[in-house]
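dumping this here before i forget
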Amino acid sequence: MDLLEYVYDKLAEMSWNFTYREFSEIYLGRSGSYFSYLNTTGNPPSAEVILNLWRELIKDREKYILLKSQSQCAKEQEMFGGWIEIYVRLADDVSSFLKGSCGS
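structure:
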């Protein structure tokens, strides 16, 4: 659960009013109440959920790479560059978690 909370917190820092519902539906590929359910019960997420999270982080990273390349504004490019770094770091953290889970 710590991994999901960490990723959620980082994404929420980037997006005003980002909700558990959005995180559950968009990043975890589950119903809107899924992340709240995990927090309440303490149940671990499935490997499929972690893989969905990794996939969505990669998609977002690619989206911001494209937006940065298309932007003519230096401030936008800097902002997108910062977001790309965050998505790279988060995707790497999720990937490491997946590798560690498979090895144990």
